[in-house]
Amino acid sequence: MLLTTAHRTGCVRDLYRVHRLEYPFPVAYMCHALWGACYAASEPGQLLRPPVLLAVVANLIPLVAQNVLNAATDIAVDARTAGKSGIARAALRLGRPRLIGIASAEMAVALLLACGVALHLGRPLVAVGVGAAILVECLYNLEPVRLKKRGLANPVSLGLHFSLLPCLSTFNTVRPDFPGFMWPLFLGLWLLLIGRTLWWSLPDATADRSVGLTPPAVRFGLSRTLALASAATAAALALIAWGLAWSLGPFSALVGTTGCSIFLISKARLTTINLRTLNEAHMRRHTLTFVVTADLILALLPLAQTTTRWP
What we know:
This protein is an all-alpha fold and 311 residues long.
């Protein structure tokens, strides 16, 4: 009995690890799934409507399921990456077939929820966004395409999956039209996630190179990748400021971009020596706190407005 209980506890711990539910990732996932709905809502109560809640869950599940699929396909890389060896050990204990089965089941549930909401509202984009996100995460992780190993396709696809697609899906759940402010804002969020993905790939460079993967940190080197990340983030801030000023006014634009700028400023201080000693666990516990704070600010800004943005 004790052995069975210990085994179950170990399985739960391993599932927690491969889903990447440690601090502060769950906060980031929730923000990414909510951004679109937050900017579509004319008042906070709209976010509590059942179709909206279901659409948010449908967009949230693939963000987490992607981690399971990634753990199944990246065991060799994670075992060689500082701060990620625990993910590799958890993936080995659970087994690659089981992980792929779990990820597939979670994606299927997400797609069913999204299709139900889309049919109920008569808005196909709700389901298209979720379906496209699932397709992107499969292309990112699985051979023969495996976008993870294909240079800039790596951050572009992850940024698409973690920002633009869920934004469009949940926005359309709340609001049927597509106002002008949405495009610079959501494209800016896409670029913001591209910049973060480039930065996040830096500690993986040595391990990626050892198994033949060529993401930007391997293809272009650490310093050039950091420069690309900074340029993408700077362009993202300009677009986000434009979208926020258009929809919420200049003060909200200042607050939103200031929150996101802290991350850019902290990365600008990195040197070549710092880059070679980056550790995923340290980055997650420290720098990502600034990241999720910025994400929360971006989600809360539209909800804090007292005037409606509806025409």
